[in-house]
Design goal:
Length: 109
């Protein structure tokens, strides 16, 4: 049986998710891509709460701006490092540029 793109991503997502989780001291930074938008958020898996979330259009310039704002808000919440959850997406393109911009702005991933 052939698997489509979404089924493969869901399988990768499960393999990634079982190895990492966010805590109150080191939250999980998660992402999601739709056809139009790019979503990023911060989650504490111990209490099952989303601490912060952001949305922007799926263009690289806007994603870099969002990453800078995400990093400043991350620091305002007094966190130093986080666990990066790529949600089954391959680490390239928009995902890699978002993560690299977070690192440039002082977030330890």
């Amino acid at each position: 049986m052939k698997k489509n793109k979404e089924q493969k991503r869901q399988r990768r997502k499960l393999h990634i998710k079982k190895k990492l989780s966010g805590t109150s001291s080191i939250p999980r930074i998660f992402i999601f891509k739709s056809n139009k938008y790019f979503y990023a958020g911060l989650a504490n898996d111990e209490s099952s709460k989303v601490l912060m979330s952001m949305v922007c259009k799926k263009k690289e310039k806007e994603i870099l701006k969002m990453a800078k704002k995400f990093a400043t808000d991350f620091k305002k919440k007094k966190y130093e490092s986080g666990v990066f959850d790529r949600s089954g997406y391959k680490y390239h393109g928009l995902i890699a540029s978002f993560a690299d911009e977070l690192r440039k702005n002082g977030v330890k991933i």
